[in-house]
Design brief:
Number of strands of chain A: 9
Helix content of chain A: 55-70%
Number of strands of chain B: 15
Largest sheet of chain A: 5 strands, antiparallel
Distance between the termini of chain B: 46 Å
Oligomer: heterodimer
Structural class of chain B: alpha+beta
Helix content of chain B: 55-70%
Shape of chain B: flat
Number of helices of chain B: 24
Largest sheet of chain B: 4 strands, antiparallel
Strand content of chain A: 5-15%
Structural class of chain A: alpha+beta
Chain lengths: ~750, ~675
């Protein structure tokens, strides 16, 4: 009896062990039974941009010429039998080779770098080395029951979600993603549930951000890895970046923007402003070596630097130590914080010292990354780590990031819309071909909309500035460099969807026309007259004299157009005038004073003055309605006061970092400062006391000094106010007398 | 070595059957347990008293006045009472959220309970603090348990089992694997409790009565063939392992709910499967092997034989259910002590999950009959289409009036559940006097629809309560249930609560101190879209009632299996029983599916097919609807009350009514069945 039980137990244990073993062997078996190939980064010699490299999968059986041109010193050894197995090549992963191989169109010759070796077989993803996770093997073993189980779970989670019963939704949705990872809708459901439903029932911004981030990470790092060609999943992810992170509907949206900017600033550093420099910056990351061995192969001084880095970081907690086989993301975040501390205006202003906990890390990085002797190696290592972290932790391909930066505009990865653009574009690139062009084309159009709207948002707020040590919000300003990008994108979309049934391409024309009209005004007011004129001419050719119904609306000179567009709208909706004046003045103060672009401020002030004059002379100025209200007169009064009112609003807008606002105040003319000083002092005083600036030797009087001539201004203002009151009293007395 | 162990085992086993041994052991154990209970009780009483003092101290806290208590709480996360300090620095950041806009702490009891947890000794379960006398009731249970162990002759086996479990658990605890420690302790103890309970049931069934003898034989057979043991191991072994599968990063309330739902669901499922299989097997195989014929020659009727079989299976299932419930509860005590995400998460576990709540709906006023009559009359006299129909005799006036009245009444009620942008409506809940007296927290559950009800957007709404409570602005996710905590101070003296809901958006940065703007779209909700939940009872009693409802369902399944197997062969009987069980379990979903089932075509063949399928499905769903609707586990997990009425209904309808019906059908067929005919294989 006992023996029988023992035998049974042993058999059960053996069966379980075999099951686990076979599951783990599955990827390897696929490799061995499949056709072998090499993953190569091939350089295309004919491109104007010399390093337009592409990654290709080349079957070994098709190669008949293979020669090493540059060998790496260290790397994974590789032996390839090519030319029908008759010849042998020996080298390492990372070697550069010259090869000739057969294709369906003949033969190709090229120079390439060997990135990996793999085998064709039934793969779970596009990635040659990724295999199915064990749980999928279990799911496959269930056979037809898997479908039933997944159906049941899917129905259950949708029903429970509607009822607001989230407790099992997470667990069940997670189980579905494990049993059937190639079910894109469940990833979207699961991620949306975390980012939108679970997050809003939390009680602190930190918790909320954790859930939003978790939902995004789930789809980005897992859902898309398993479904790399699903357009709708890409679009959903892009939309979450655009709507949840960059939108304003969520109470904690400012927190999201801060945390997001902080994370990406630490990972990638501050990007250069100049577009060419920015392309070069991201390209360096894209071209970084794939492995440590390759990295060492590029520079003989790299190994000593790595050794020194390991030595110096030994004193740190395990999770922060530099380890060639370890978690680069944590180390990169540590480096990012160190780097930000060196460049932070707040840190310098406040003389911030690292905490006792952070001091060893700072010292270690000072001794390594801060050592000018190793500057080149440090930069190369950073690029390597960034590339690896982007691929492994964020599932983002630096090559694509470079391509999109090159082909669109100055993408700042600290801005959520840059990520929205990335994912929407990636979805189009890898997923659009799989759509049923007849019935599912609307999915492609929706995805394209997300992309072009991301560009629009970047035009409005793509210029990002962030100091992680300020504890303040992210600076986001207009970036007119995106205007042309949007124009090009529109044209591409128009051609792409021209034959789509319904109003495929026309659904973008209103967007394009309105955006460009606004862009003309913006460029004109900012002083780029040539750019504005060019766009005006293009509008004329598309929607004016060259339009489907020819008209003359764009056949006018630029100043008149701007004036007509501006003022014509005001005839219909005078209140828009106030909004426009405020918007232009806000921008004038922000960019004109903060970025020292005097022409922007001068133009804004001129615009406000002209508009006030326009309304003063308007024919309906004296109109008094049935309630005795002179609406236009009031509007005029508001416009008269518009400059100080808007300036006060800019200074008290908590969405802008406090330091920025103090800089704006400091650079403003004295009379303007005097006009708002009393108005804004109370709030700024409270904000200052609550900010980190107050921890230093700074005082309110120093950062927000009283302007000279303030007493005189106060006297004049008091007299003006008294006069206004008297005028109003007279008017009411007159009305009463009239009655 | 093994022989020595065997000899020692046999000797002690023989010793434990002696009366003197049993007396000494049970006496020593009882005294030890009593002493432990006294220690627990005194500690619990002291802590309970401190809890009351904490409540009094916290009532004086005011974040606006920033008195000493408040400062210590916010800066250090602690409250000092005499020489004792409650709380910890880790909690300091959380207490800010506990203060309302008025500066006071609204949930003083709950905050005091959280502060108190930092002084509770690690060895003491938190449930003893809530009620110090719980330690005595637990002691009583343990005394009974150990005495049963001793007097049933399982003391040695139980002791060895507990020793092994303690060793394994201690090893796991020492290694820092708390969940493994719980599992290592829980599984052997659960199995021990199972065996002990079986022994007790067998003792109870050991009477000179035919039915009881048959029932006893069923249990003995199930144990001998290890069927029951295997199922017990699966069901009872899974429960202590479940806490390990919980996602520690999710809110604690979700972890608790997931654990409850899964453990109760798994145990119910396994017990149901065992009931059906055992029920079919025990009858079908006895009939096949002519064992039943041998039994029928004895003075026991066929009806009694069937009843005895059913009783045996129900008794076995009851034991399972009892042990599974106790195991679930014991593991729940561990799960609920896990760290919560924040104070509100911890409060949600106490107030929304481990509680029995009932929901109250607002009273919607119908259209006054005079006004309704006038509207109907006016329409009948002025609508030309209706006049034409009436004049031509195509419709009767009373039918028309009835339809119109129903339509107007429905629209009137719908209007009360609709708020245009900027509009406000008042809703009154009644019958809350007891809640006000008990001063327990309430929760407003609402499910609103607005505009496109986009799941990506948050829609604004403002709730205004009477009295000091004031107003609160919220953002809700449309087409989904949202929850808003409501303080009991909002209840008026007469036990009613008025809530005004405004479809507006509050912008704190606009104007002077904030401004209200109309919402973007009309807000609408269903008749059950606004519900006020309040506590009606405790979790433990709710758990018992829920499991009793499950027992009623299992009783029916047992009778079904026994009676089906008395007519059909084992495979066919099992198939029929599982089909009925599955259909009954998914009856609510089946009802939804039938409502949506529609083949959109003009062709007759698919339409005929649809008719047949719909007819069969509708009949099955109608017949099995009560079984599917008796889902007590769901209510329990949502913190809703499983009422005595629901239990009585399940007992009467399913446990007794259906069981009797099935029994009558089965017995009618079985009493004519020829048992002497051989229907097996071989000689």
């Amino acid at each position: 009896m006992f023996r029988e039980r023992l035998v049974q137990l042993i058999c059960v244990v053996l069966a379980i062990a075999c099951f686990i073993f076979s599951g783990r062997m599955l990827p390897r078996m696929n490799v061995l039974t499949g056709e072998q190939y090499l993953m190569l980064t091939i350089e295309k010699p004919t491109d104007a941009l010399a390093t337009n490299a592409v990654q290709r999968r080349v079957p070994i059986s098709k190669i008949y010429q293979m020669e090493t041109t540059r060998a790496v010193e260290r790397g994974e050894a590789l032996t390839v039998m090519f030319d029908g197995g008759l010849r042998k090549w020996e080298g390492h992963i990372g070697d550069e080779i010259a090869l000739t191989w057969r294709t369906s169109e003949g033969e190709e010759i090229g120079r390439a770098r060997i990135d990996a070796r793999g085998g064709y077989g039934l793969r779970y993803t596009d990635d040659s080395v990724a295999g199915a996770p064990p749980i999928v093997a279990i799911g496959t073993a269930l056979g037809a029951l898997r479908g039933l189980l997944v159906d049941y779970l899917w129905l259950k989670v949708t029903w429970m979600k509607e009822k607001g019963l989230f407790y099992e939704v997470m667990a069940d949705a997670d189980l579905i993603t494990r049993l059937q990872p190639r079910f894109p809708e469940v990833w979207a459901f699961h991620g949306h549930n975390m980012a939108y439903n679970i997050s809003v029932v939390t009680n602190t911004p930190e918790e909320r951000w954790a859930w939003v981030n978790a939902g995004i990470e789930l789809v980005r790092n897992k859902g898309i890895r398993y479904n790399p060609n699903d357009l709708v999943l890409h679009k959903d992810l892009a939309f979450w970046f655009a709507h949840k992170l960059d939108g304003v509907a969520d109470d904690a949206h400012l927190f999201y923007k801060r945390e997001f900017a902080r994370e990406w600033q630490f990972i990638l550093g501050t990007p250069p402003y100049d577009i060419e420099q920015r392309r070069a910056w991201i390209k360096r990351i894209a071209d970084a070596p794939v492995t440590i061995a390759q990295l060492e192969g590029t520079d003989p001084e790299m190994r000593p630097f790595l050794n020194k880095l390991e030595e110096q970081t030994k004193v740190l907690a395990t999770r922060y130590r530099f380890d060639e086989r370890g978690d680069f993301k944590r180390f990169l975040m540590l480096h990012g914080e160190w780097d930000a501390r060196r460049t932070s205006a707040y840190a310098k202003l406040l003389g911030m010292r690292p905490s006792d906990e952070a001091a060893p890390g700072i010292a270690a990085l000072d001794a390594t990354f801060g050592d000018k002797v190793y500057a080149k190696q440090a930069a190369a290592l950073l690029d390597f780590m960034r590339r690896k972290v982007l691929l492994d932790d964020y599932n983002m391909d630096p090559r694509l990031m470079f391509e999109y930066t090159r082909d669109t505009g100055p993408l700042d990865w600290r801005h959520p819309q840059a990520h929205a653009l990335y994912w929407a574009r990636r979805g189009e690139q890898f997923g659009q071909d799989r759509l049923d062009k007849g019935n599912d084309i609307y999915k492609a159009i929706n995805n394209s909309r997300v992309e072009i709207q991301a560009m629009q948002a970047l035009a409005r707020s793509g210029l990002v500035g962030y100091d992680p040590f300020s504890g303040d919000n992210v600076t986001r300003l207009n970036d007119p460099r995106w205007i042309r990008v949007i124009d090009r994108k529109f044209r591409k979309l128009y051609d792409q969807y021209y034959t789509t049934r319904g109003s495929g391409s026309d659904s973008f024309t209103d967007f394009h026309e309105n955006f460009m009209k606004g862009a003309i005004r913006e460029l004109f007011h900012s002083g780029d007259v040539d750019g504005a004129k060019q766009i005006l001419d293009e509008l004329d050719s598309l929607y004016g004299r060259g339009g489907t119904v020819p008209n003359e609306q764009y056949a006018i000179d630029l100043p008149t157009f701007v004036r007509n567009v501006t003022y014509g709208e005001y005839e219909q909706q005078p209140d828009v005038a106030r909004t426009d004046v405020y918007t232009v003045l806000e921008r004038g103060f922000r960019e004109g004073l903060l970025l020292d672009r005097k022409e922007v401020l001068d133009e804004a002030l001129r615009f406000a003055a002209e508009l006030t004059t326009f309304f003063r002379g308007a024919r309906w100025n004296d109109f008094v309605n049935a309630f005795g209200e002179g609406r236009m007169k009031e509007l005029l009064g508001e416009l008269d006061d518009s400059v100080p009112a808007v300036f006060a609003k800019v200074l008290t807008d908590a969405n802008t970092p406090l330091l920025d606002r103090l800089v704006i105040y400091g650079k403003a003319p004295e009379d303007l400062r005097a006009s708002v000083y009393d108005r804004v002092l109370p709030q700024l005083e409270v904000e200052f006391k609550g900010s980190r600036l107050s921890n230093s030797s700074l005082t309110v009087d120093r950062v927000f000094p009283e302007p000279p001539g303030l007493d005189e201004y106060r006297r004049v203002a008091a007299a003006r106010a008294a006069a206004r009151v008297a005028e109003r009293n007279d008017a009411e007395r007159s009305a009463a007398q009239r009655k | 070595m093994i022989r020595l162990f065997k000899r020692m085992y046999a000797r002690v086993d023989a010793m434990q059957r002696g009366t003197m041994f049993r007396l000494i052991v049970s006496g020593v154990l009882s005294v030890a347990i009593l002493v432990a209970a006294l220690i627990c009780s005194s500690t619990a009483t002291m802590l309970h008293r401190d809890g009351e003092l904490l409540v009094e101290a916290l009532k004086t806290a005011n974040s606006i006045e920033k008195n000493a208590v408040t400062k210590e709480l916010l800066e250090q996360g602690t409250v000092t009472l005499g020489a004792r300090v409650y709380g910890s620095a880790d909690l300091a950041t959380q207490w800010t959220a506990a203060f309302a806009d008025s500066g006071r702490i609204e949930r003083v009891t709950e905050v005091a309970a959280m502060l108190l947890t930092t002084r509770i000794p690690a060895w003491m379960p938190g449930v003893f603090i809530d009620d110090p006398y719980t330690s005595f009731s637990t002691a009583a249970t343990l005394i009974v348990f150990f005495n049963l162990l001793v007097w049933s002759g399982l003391f040695l086996q139980g002791t060895l089992t507990m020793l092994c479990a303690l060793c394994a658990g201690a090893l796991a605890w020492w290694a820092g694997e708390r969940s493994w420690a719980v599992a290592a302790l829980g599984i052997p103890l659960a199995m021990l409790a199972f065996f002990l309970s079986i022994r007790i049931v067998l003792t109870l069934l050991d009477r000179r009565l035919g039915i009881l003898a048959v029932a006893s034989t069923v249990i003995k057979e199930a144990m001998a063939q290890r069927i029951a043991v295997a199922f017990a191991f699966v069901a009872l072994g899974a429960i202590p392992l479940l806490p390990m599968t919980l996602d520690g990063s999710s809110p604690l309330r979700y972890q608790v709910q997931t654990f409850l739902s899964t453990s109760l669901g798994v145990s119910y499922g396994v017990i149901a499967v065992m009931t059906l299989l055992l029920g079919c097997a025990t009858v079908a195989f006895e009939i096949r092997d002519r064992t039943a014929w041998m039994t029928m020659v004895k003075p026991i009727s066929r009806g009694h034989w069937l009843l005895g079989k059913c009783l045996g299976i129900v008794a076995l299932s009851s034991v399972f259910l009892l042990v599974a419930t106790l195991t679930t509860y014991a593991c729940l005590l561990e799960v609920r002590t896990r760290p919560a995400q924040d104070i509100f998460d911890a409060l949600a576990v106490r107030e929304e999950v481990l509680v029995a709540r009932i929901g109250t709906f607002p009273r919607y006023l119908p259209l006054p009959s005079e006004q309704l009559r006038a509207m109907v009359e006016k329409t009948v006299t002025t609508d030309p289409a209706i006049r034409e129909d009436l004049d031509s005799g195509a419709r009767r006036e009373q039918d028309v009036k009835r339809e119109l009245a129903r339509e107007y009444q429905m629209n009137w009620l719908k209007q009360q559940r609709s708020l245009a942008p900027g509009a406000e409506q008042e809703y009154t809940f009644y019958g809350l006097s007891e809640v006000k007296r008990a001063n327990t927290a309430l929760a407003l559950r609402y499910k609103f629809f607005s505009g496109a009800s986009d799941s990506h957007d948050l829609y604004p709404v403002v709730f205004i309560f009477d009295g000091e409570v004031g107003w609160t602005d919220s953002k809700f996710v449309a087409a989904q249930t949202n929850v808003l905590p409501v303080p009991p101070a909002a209840i008026a003296a007469d036990g009613s609560m008025k809530i005004r809901i405004q479809n507006v958006r509050f912008d704190p940065s606009a104007g002077d101190g904030g401004q209200f703007f109309p919402g973007g779209a009309t807000i609408m909700f269903d008749h059950d879209g606004l519900e006020l939940m309040h506590e009606e009872g405790g979790f433990e009693a709710n758990l018992v009632r829920a499991q009793l409802v499950n027992l009623c369902k299992i009783t029916f399944l047992a009778m079904l299996a026994v009676c089906a197997a008395s007519i059909l062969s084992f495979p066919v009987a099992a198939l029929v029983c599982f089909a009925i069980f599955a259909a009954g379990s998914i009856a609510p979903f089946l009802a939804l599916s039938i409502a949506e089932y529609n083949i959109r075509t003009e062709e007759w063949a698919p339409n005929a097919f649809e008719f047949v399928i719909r007819s069969i499905s509708s009949v099955v769903e109608f017949m099995l609807r009560p079984f599917g609707q008796a889902v007590s586990t769901g209510s329990l997990v949502q913190g809703r009350l499983v009422s005595w009425w629901e239990l009585a209904r399940a007992f009467a309808l399913i446990g007794v009514g259906w069981s009797v019906l099935v029994f009558i059908v089965g017995w009618s067929a079985f009493r004519r069945k020829e048992l002497a005919i051989y229907s097996g294989q071989g000689g």
